[in-house]
Amino acid sequence: MSIIYKTLPRKNPQDLAAPEKFYAAVVANGSVDFEMLAEIISEQCTVTETDCLAVLNVLEQNIVRELKQGRIVRLGKLGNFQVSLSSEGFVTADEVSANAITKARILFRPAKKMRNLLKNLSFSKAS
Question: What is the DSSP letter of 91?
Fold first, then answer.
């Protein structure tokens, strides 16, 4: 099965007067939520759908709790979650304070198996 893409025109944000160029963009093929994942997992093992959903919910809660404490959350063959920051720059280290932080985000770094998945994808253009 291939990933569907469409063509989109985009302006150059560094030169708005430049002509638009066209780029490929993924067309989403639906989504899967926790409930659907729990159902799929329960069909592949002996654990009930309710038990799978409970585990997924607790996993989410624990990931959030650990990220709030500044920990890297390693999920085995899936990858790692980590909080990252952006801040203003200062001349001396003493000037840097928590007020200098302008943005926080969560980074996901896929594990090797997930990265290797990207090497074997096929694509087809949306009609």
Answer: S
pTM of the entire predicted model: 0.79
| Domain of residue 80, residue span | 72-114
* Contact (Cβ atoms closer than 8 angstroms) between residue 102 and residue 88: yes
Q: Is residue 65 part of a domain?
A: no
Give the Cα separation of 101 and 115 in Å (integer).
31
Q: Tell me how far apart the alpha carbons of residues 89 and 101 are, in angstroms, rounded to a whole number.
A: 10
Give per-residue pLDDT as tens, 11-64: 998 898 999 999 999 999 999 998 999 999 999 999 999 999 999 999 999 999
Instruction: Compute CA 75 distance to the chain's CA centroid, rounded to the nearest angstrom.
Output: 13
Domain count, the chain: 1
